[in-house]
From TrEMBL:
Keyword Electron transport: yes
UniProt entry keywords in alphabetical sequence: Copper, Electron transport, Magnesium, Membrane, Metal-binding, Mitochondrion, Mitochondrion inner membrane, Respiratory chain, Translocase, Transmembrane, Transmembrane helix, Transport
Record-annotated Cytochrome oxidase subunit II copper A binding domain positions: 92-225
Quaternary context: Component of the cytochrome c oxidase (complex IV, CIV), a multisubunit enzyme composed of a catalytic core of 3 subunits and several supernumerary subunits. The complex exists as a monomer or a dimer and forms supercomplexes (SCs) in the inner mitochondrial membrane with ubiquinol-cytochrome c oxidoreductase (cytochrome b-c1 complex, complex III, CIII).
A Gene Ontology molecular function term of the record: cytochrome-c oxidase activity
Name of the protein in its database record: Cytochrome c oxidase subunit 2
NCBIfam families membership: CoxB (TIGR02866)
Gene3D superfamilies cross-referenced by the UniProt entry: 1.10.287.90, Cupredoxins - blue copper proteins (2.60.40.420)
Length: 229
């Protein structure tokens, strides 16, 4: 999760988020190089005293500063497209979780397991445990197995919501009347926090998401306990 003064991206918990971070750093590096170059050129204009009354055109320099940015853009566009298609790839998921956005909470369905379903509300500040995170903890967490391909189906019951987990590189809109799909692979155990990220009404800020990433046998224990109750 994000902590104080963390201005960058969160540590990744999935291979796709790792790739997203690499792409972010790559794009930022290009951005910094362009900013430094243009900033230097603009600064140096202050000290330029040369005037050429007969200068009307410069074909060569126009060619250079048209084609060069186009090539630089390709270096961003091609890795971006690679990532876009990589994020869309579904590779034989072993668990499917359906998450439904409501005003203002999420509800979940494990359709593979006798349709285990539950609501997940934010824990209000006055009911928070001492080790709880304000505006981020929920009463019923999603439990999912680590080191497994997981498919998420997202939809909504009233208005548009967005199911977003930064550490996993997942952000999918839940739209009424539609079913959106995404997938991820958690490569470490832990708690991964997220929030709704479509402005969905008065309590938009208060419908967080918590995933408990656990080893597969712990997940089987948890799901079989919930199937029987
Ligand atoms: Cu749901 Cu914002």
């Amino acid at each position: 999760m994000s902590t104080w003064a963390n201005l960058g991206l969160q540590d990744s918990a999935s291979p796709l988020m790792e790739q997203l971070i690499f792409f972010h750093d790559h794009a930022l590096l290009i951005l910094v190089m362009i900013t430094v170059l243009v900033g230097y050129l603009m600064f140096m204009l202050f000290f330029n005293n040369y005037i050429n009354r007969f200068l009307l055109h410069g074909q060569l320099i126009e060619m250079i500063w048209t084609i060069l940015p186009a090539i630089i853009l390709l270096f961003i566009a091609l890795p971006s497209l690679r990532l876009l298609y990589l994020l869309d790839e579904i590779n034989e998921p072993s668990v499917t979780l359906k998450s439904i956005g409501h005003q203002w909470y999420w509800s979940y369905e494990y359709s593979d397991f006798n349709n285990v379903e539950f609501d997940s509300y934010m824990v209000p500040t006055n009911e928070l445990e001492n080790d709880g995170f304000r505006l981020l903890d929920v009463d019923n967490r999603i439990v999912l197995p680590m080191n497994s391909q997981i498919r998420i189906l997202v939809t909504a019951a009233d208005v548009i919501h967005s199911w977003t987990i930064p550490a996993l590189g997942v952000k999918v809109d839940g739209t009424p009347g539609r079913l959106n799909q995404t997938n991820f692979f958690m490569n470490r155990p832990g708690l991964f926090y997220g929030q709704c990220s479509e402005i969905c009404g008065a309590n938009h800020s208060f419908m967080p998401i918590v995933i408990e990433s656990v080893p597969v046998n712990n997940f089987i224990k948890w799901i079989s306990k919930n199937m029987n109750s």
